[in-house]
Write a structure and sequence with these properties.
The complex is a heterodimer of chains A (266) and B (228). Chain A is an alpha/beta fold. Chain A has helices at residues 16-29, 46-50, 60-64, 70-73, 99-112, 126-133, 146-161, 177-182, 188-195, 207-215, 226-238, 254-261, and strands at residues 3-8, 34-38, 75-76, 83-86, 115-119, 137-142, 169-175, 198-204. Chain B has 228 residues and is of the alpha/beta class. Chain B folds into two domains: 8-85, Double Stranded RNA Binding Domain, CATH 3.30.160; 101-227, Pectate Lyase C-like (3 Solenoid). Chain B has helices at 27-40, 63-75, 91-101, 211-214, 220-227; strands at 8-13, 16-21, 50-55, 79-85, 103-107, 115-118, 121-125, 133-136, 140-146, 149-152, 161-167, 171-174, 177-180, 189-197, 202-207. In chain B, helix 1 links the parallel strand 2 and strand 3 (50-55). The longest helix of chain B has 14 residues, at 27-40. Classes of the chains: A alpha/beta (266), B alpha/beta (228). Chain A: InterPro entries: AAA_dom (IPR025669), MinD (IPR010223), MinD_FleN (IPR025501), P-loop_NTPase (IPR027417), ParA/MinD_ATPase (IPR050625).
Chain lengths: 266, 228
């Protein structure tokens, strides 16, 4: 019996889809059977980030309205055997999906897959309600910006009303190193204290993420970038491992080490 | 006079006159005598308006009865009723007072978009996040951070106040007063309270210590017993 995790944020553009794609990929890398569901009906792009756009024949609305079987709509990933995607419809709107329909689909997928990762649309309307309907757990994504933290707070409030197995967990995305140093960014500790939920990972703002997703391959498959390691760490924490938080500092060069030796602040 | 016992007793004080109505006679009897008294003691036209305090003893006035009483005074516009005091209240009202004076303990976080509304005093253990709102008819005590909006004395109680372990609210509201955070970035304050300052006619934030002399009757129940 699998577990369904919804990735949500309230605000748009904070990286829900990227997080969904990368957590899914990272879990698949660890030989887990994973299915991704895009619930952003009308504005789908999880398939684009995964590079599977050209393989879509049926979508989630077709499944709910009985035009095809669930198995027919699932798209197998080109890199991992046990990674699948259930794409959103591009032509219908959010009312085409019902909470009951979502629950049925997720329960069916749970028989086959170990992890079902649901990409939630922005907002708190029907699309959000559909996305969280069948979820056992939730991960809230936020960036270190006031507006995004505010929306995350609102979303957590709504999630707490749902009966989930555990409290939502937090991913802080797009952390900018240089702004942390200058103190121009909201402190991670302050965000965690305000939202008062457990942190499951922090992801540094990394150009590699954009490069990779434009190529249609999640950054998590490249082992060298900082963001990739961050997503892999999140996946390991989902599996229950204890992984320390990534250091925000860059690797120090020899020159900086010397400066540090002489007590000069870099 | 058909009876030796006076049903209405009038005493003059510096603030005006106090009028005692006998508590054992019938309401109509008392009203008749009051009417006669007022007619007979009609002041001359050039005298100033007299303020009257009515004491009912152990008599409870229904709404219509109170209206009748006021009408008698209003017919003669030389008098102005300052207050009507009774030593008894209805059970219903008493229970409501107790309900309102109870401290409601809530243990949660009030997040953005959520509103926590309480009758009486609120003791919140947890934060009020930005965009969240707590509203009470009495005082508000927050053991946690107040970042959102707190509205105390929402039914118009201007003596209500707001206390928080850490205060950096977007707005403080007490009765019909409102104050908001300054437009510049500022630090919050620890262990302070917000209350209406009568002299400045606005909400001020001050150290908790000032509460002990500015709001002596901290319990809402005591306040109601004394002020009705």
């Amino acid at each position: 019996m699998g577990e369904a995790i919804v990735i949500t944020s309230g605000k748009g553009g904070v990286g829900k889809t990227t997080t969904t794609a990368n957590i899914g990929t990272a879990l698949a890398l660890m030989d887990k059977k994973v299915c991704l569901i895009d619930t952003d009906i009308g504005l789908r792009n999880l398939d684009v980030v995964m590079g599977l756009e050209n393989r879509i024949i049926y979508d989630i609305v077709d499944v709910i309205q009985g035009r095809c079987k669930l198995k027919q709509a699932l798209i197998k990933d080109k890199r991992f055997e046990y990674l699948s995607l259930l794409p959103a419809a591009q032509t219908s709107d959010k009312t085409a999906v019902t909470t009951e329909g979502m629950k049925t689909i997720i329960n069916e997928l749970k028989q086959e897959y170990e992890y079902i990762i649901i990409d939630c649309p922005a907002g708190i309307e029907q699309g959000f309600q559909n996305a969280i309907a069948g979820a056992d757990r939730a991960i809230v994504v936020t960036t270190p910006e006031k507006s995004s933290v505010r929306d995350a707070d609102r979303i957590i409030g709504l999630l707490e009303k749902e009966e989930m197995q555990e409290r939502p967990r937090l991913v802080i995305n797009r952390i900018r190193n240089h702004m942390v140093k200058t103190g121009d960014m909201i402190d991670i500790d302050d965000i965690v204290q305000l939202l008062s939920i457990d942190l499951i990972g922090i992801v540094i703002d990394d150009d590699e993420v954009i490069k990779a997703s434009n190529k249609g391959e999640p950054v998590a498959i490249h082992p060298n970038s900082k963001a990739s390691i961050a997503y892999r760490n999140i996946a390991r924490r989902i599996l229950g491992e204890t992984v320390p938080l990534q250091s925000l500092e860059d690797e120090k060069g020899v020159f900086q080490k010397v400066k540090k030796f002489f007590g000069i602040r870099s | 006079m058909h009876d030796t016992k006076q049903l209405i007793t009038i005493k003059g004080t510096r603030e005006g006159i106090t009028l005692f109505i006998d508590e054992s006679c019938s309401f109509n009897q008392a009203m008749n005598e009051l009417h006669d008294k007022i007619i007979s003691s009609r002041p001359k036209n050039d005298e100033p308006i007299v303020s009257v305090k009515v004491k009912l003893g152990n008599r409870y006035l229904k709404e219509e009865q109170e209206k009748d009483l006021r009408k008698i005074f209003n017919e003669e516009n030389r008098f102005e009723i300052h207050s009507i005091e009774s030593d008894v209240i209805r059970k219903e009202d008493a229970l409501k007072w107790i309900e309102e004076s109870k401290m409601k303990l809530v243990n949660r976080i009030v997040r953005s978009g959520q509103v926590l509304e309480i009758d009486g005093d609120l003791l919140l253990i947890g934060d009020v996040n930005p965009g969240g709102k707590v509203v009470s008819t009495g005082n508000i005590f927050i053991m946690g951070h107040l970042y959102g909006i707190a509205h105390a004395g929402v039914d118009g109680d201007r003596s209500a106040f707001i206390v928080a372990s850490y205060m950096k609210p977007t707005q403080l509201r007490i009765a019909d007063y409102l104050s908001r955070a300054p437009d510049y970035e500022s630090d919050g304050v620890y262990m302070e309270c917000g209350l209406i300052d009568e002299e400045q006619d606005k909400i001020i934030i001050d150290r908790l210590q000032v509460l002990s002399h500015k709001r002596k009757e901290i319990s809402r129940f005591e306040r109601r017993i004394q002020n009705g």
